[in-house]
Design brief:
The complex is a heterodimer of chains A (about 325) and B (about 500). By secondary structure, chain A is α+β, with helices and mostly antiparallel strands. In chain A, about 15% of the residues lie in helices and about 40% in strands. In chain A, strands 2, 3, 4, 5, 6, 7, 8, 9, 10, 11 and 12 form an eleven-stranded antiparallel β-sheet that branches. Chain B has one domain: Porin (Beta Barrel). The chains are: A alpha+beta (about 325), B mainly beta (about 500).
């Protein structure tokens, strides 16, 4: 074909090609593991693919392709949850700390590594209680995990909307069994065996379940099992690397024993004011929170006061 | 005076429709025409409801009776930018280990298929004294979602019998090649070829043969019926092969016997105007596909002869039924404003893929209903139109073995043309632009439960390509426990993209 229409073909192709330069959608592959030449499938034969001149840790959280770069959760995050609870008319704030490596593809989020770094409870009202679970932190890290938690990060007219699915955490009992919320938490007589679920002694002690050290007007050691759930959902400003999101949550606890005041066995409930329950996310740079899982969690706990001070209220 | 509907004449069109629908032989497909809508004219995405010049030959041949006699030419450029993002593999325990070629089930029976060691796929294998190097074929290293196509549009409409009968021809032909067909597997078998995922309903389907011709009959001034056909190509290839030495396959002797058969696939349309401003339409497009049948015979030097055959199905389009309506909001001597809507039902649950396989029942495709809305404005010699359509994906989330890549699609198509006279002839020149967004989608594969007996108890889920009970040299095979897979879509993948097109066209009318 000759003439003006044929002559327009190159110009049309050039214009469309240039226009799509702003909106192209390239193929991508997140870094992963492919075995080793000569391997026999053994676990120690790990080799990261080469998208990778980077370290395995860095590659694992380099993430996918978000719908919009302004709503991008790919990366490593310090997650500091603060909720308010009430018992016997007194209020306490519970501070939970997590470490998330998040991969985002389109609007879909997956926590590819979710470490539980521990929690504390501090008194808010004058007669409230303080609770230390520090002795249990290694067990929280070992037995509890948010890896695999799914969520979404969607683009909205005002920025972004984030949502992490409801997630249960079990402490001091057979985690895989009691994560099912339809199960009843074990009583003191139900110690776990090789064949049956039940409570397990955590926190480096021989007490049933976890051992919490309670101080305040009423004090003592509380032995219990706990099952919490939380869900994060709310709006986020575009391009935010530190932000707060509302939390919905609840907690179930079975007291298995105590030493000291019996008042400490009282179960608390979420405060009725939704604004008192929130979680802070702070993006970590490559130099922050590195090393072994225990080292990462130690860094996370020390960084909370610097990166998300409001999560310690 | 407009004649009233004559029942006898109205039913004249029925045998035409019945005969066409009864004679359904899957034929060459027109996914390109379905994706881009009408090129030239005012049909756009609403071509089944609004007269679109020569393009009505394909979308609704009954509307040819309202088209002007014309010869039209045009160019159309379409850019396909579909990105596929694969999730990272989480650990080496999921890799197919090296040295498995002699492994068997625990009872000594060979596996039904032997995967390629994962590290060889990703990194290649260096040459050895006995075998040449194996090039790497990394995941998604050979995707096919990015291309730029240019097409030539040719259209013709002519009238006979005092404009009662209109005949049309319409073709959109790629400049790069007359037609294209690239087959790929949508599961772990693709590791042997591109080791990549590919958009299921785009790519080579955008260079499909797209030639239609047909006619419309004006039964009354209110009622028209039409019958059209798309051109069909069926290729049959028979290649008898003599293998003198199985160790020297480069020295085989091959003959060929290739046939290209042409047949037709029908589509029918009806247009009825119960009111001067209102038009109702209905169409039916029969299933279409491009069939490639290949047969091989291998004759060995020891006199043994074996035969094998592989069939490919490209450009499959299912039954498509549509109903539409248009209404003239304004009609004056110089201005017309028309709104139009079409609903298209696609029976995608009957889909067969490029290897002539139907999707696994657990992940069967959905039938779809595609709404199209739009408006047309004519002022004097100038006409403009704008359409929008939402095409839901027929593909369910691919959380199992298969990796059919597809997305919901939201599209906009607009155009304008202007009539003028030059050198004693009437012309119409037009331009068109469309943008279609493939809405992002992501899926994570479901875990495959372990199978102690090494059998595949979950064929809909990602296949464990190294059976758990495998042995090698009489001992359990290391690295066989749990899932090992080279499925390129595991452990998950996402896709999104754009189709952007534009074109110019020129028609001479009389």
């Amino acid at each position: 074909m000759k003439g003006p229409i044929a002559a327009s073909v190159p110009w049309l192709m050039l214009a469309l090609g240039a226009g799509l330069g702003l909106a192209c959608a390239p193929d991508s592959v997140a870094p992963g593991y492919y075995g080793v030449t000569g391997d026999a499938g053994s676990d120690d034969a790990s080799e990261l693919d080469d998208a990778s001149t980077m370290s395995a840790d860095a590659a694992a959280f380099s993430g996918g392709t978000p719908t919009s770069p302004a709503c991008n959760m790919n990366g490593r995050w310090l997650v500091a949850q603060r909720v308010l609870a009430e018992a016997l008319g007194q209020t306490q704030a519970s501070h939970n700390w997590f470490y998330y490596e998040v991969t985002q593809n389109a609007d879909q989020l997956v926590v590819t590594k979710g470490l539980h770094c521990g929690y504390e409870v501090v008194a808010v009202s004058a007669l409230g209680a303080n609770v230390s679970s520090q002795a249990c932190w290694p067990d929280f890290l070992q037995y509890d995990s948010d890896t695999g938690r799914a969520g979404t990060m969607e683009v909205t007219s005002s920025g972004c909307e984030i949502n992490f699915e409801k997630r249960y955490t079990v402490r001091g009992a057979t985690v895989a069994y009691y994560e099912d919320p339809s199960t009843t938490l074990p009583k003191a007589s139900q110690k776990a065996t090789s064949f049956t679920p039940g409570w397990i002694s955590w926190c480096g002690a021989s007490n049933p379940g976890i051992t919490l050290v309670v101080t305040g007007p009423a004090s003592g050691d509380l032995y219990c099992v706990q099952r919490d759930w939380n869900q994060y959902s709310g709006s986020v400003a575009a391009n935010a690397t530190t932000f707060e999101v509302p939390v919905t949550w609840d907690s179930d606890q079975d007291s298995l024993g105590y030493s000291g005041s019996s008042v400490i066995t009282e179960q608390d409930v979420p405060d009725s004011d939704p604004s008192q329950h929130y979680v802070w996310f702070a993006k970590l740079d490559p130099t922050q929170a590195t090393g072994t899982d225990a080292e990462i969690c130690a860094s996370v706990r020390s960084l909370v006061s610097m990166l998300t001070p409001d999560a310690l209220k | 005076m407009s004649p009233r509907l004559n029942p006898t004449r109205a039913w004249l069109g029925l045998p035409l429709v019945v005969c066409a629908v009864a004679w359904v032989r899957p034929a060459s497909a027109s996914p390109l025409l379905e994706t881009v809508g009408g090129v030239g004219g005012q049909g756009g995405f609403n071509g089944r409801t609004v007269e679109g010049g020569a393009a009505s030959t394909y979308y609704n041949p009954a509307l040819l009776t309202d088209a002007k006699t014309e010869l039209s030419l045009g160019v159309f450029i379409l850019s396909e930018q579909i990105g596929i993002s694969l999730a990272g593999r989480p650990g080496t325990q999921y890799a197919v280990p090296v040295g498995i070629e002699n492994a068997t089930y625990a009872n000594g029976v060979p596996w039904s298929a032997y995967p390629i060691p994962t590290t060889w796929l990703q990194n290649g294998r260096p040459a050895t004294p006995t075998s040449p190097a194996l090039p790497a074929r990394p995941r998604q290293g050979d995707g096919s979602g990015h291309d730029l196509f240019a097409y030539q549009m040719i259209g013709l409409v002519t009238k006979l019998f005092h404009d009662r009968l209109a005949l049309g021809g319409y073709a959109v032909i790629p400049y790069s090649k007359f037609t294209g067909a690239d087959a790929f597997y949508s599961d772990e078998r693709e590791q042997y070829f591109t080791n990549s995922l590919h958009p299921e309903l785009y790519g080579d389907r955008l260079v499909a043969t797209s030639i239609a011709f047909g006619g419309g009959l004006k039964v009354t001034d209110q009622l028209s019926v039409g019958l059209g056909f798309t051109l069909n190509l069926t290729t049959e290839a028979f290649t008898p092969t003599y293998v003198s030495n199985t160790g020297e396959l480069q020295n085989i002797l091959v003959d060929s016997d290739v046939k290209v058969l042409v047949s037709l696939s029908p589509h029918v349309g009806v247009s009825y105007k119960p009111l001067p401003r209102l038009r109702l339409t209905a169409t039916a497009h029969a299933p279409e596909k491009l069939q490639i049948d290949t047969d091989f015979t291998f004759l060995l030097a020891n006199g043994v002869e074996e035969q094998a055959g592989v069939d490919f199905t490209h450009d499959y389009m299912p039954w498509q039924l549509a109903a539409g309506a248009s209404y003239d909001l304004v009609t004056t001597s110089t201005d017309t404003i028309t709104i139009a809507a079409t609903f298209i039902y696609g029976q995608w649950s009957t889909y067969v893929d490029r290897h002539s396989e139907a999707p696994i029942a657990a992940y069967g495709w959905y039938d779809t209903l595609t709404p199209v809305v739009g408006a047309r404005v004519q002022h004097g010699d100038v006409r403009v139109f704008l359409d929008s359509e939402y095409q839901p994906s027929p593909v369910p989330l691919q959380t199992g073995r298969t990796n059919y890549v597809d997305n919901d699609r939201l599209g906009f198509d607009g155009g304008a043309d202007c009539a003028f006279s030059l050198w004693g002839s009437d012309f119409r020149v037009g331009a068109q632009l469309q943008v279609q967004r493939l809405i992002p989608r992501y899926q994570t594969k479901l875990p495959t439960p372990p199978s102690a007996d090494g059998l595949d108890h979950y064929p809909a889920l990602v296949a464990d390509e190294v059976p758990d009970n495998s042995i090698l040299d009489g001992r359990p095979l290391a690295g066989a426990q749990g899932l090992q897979t080279n499925n390129p879509g595991w452990p998950g993948f996402g896709s999104q993209g754009w189709l952007v097109g534009g074109g110019l066209n020129l028609a001479v009318t009389w």
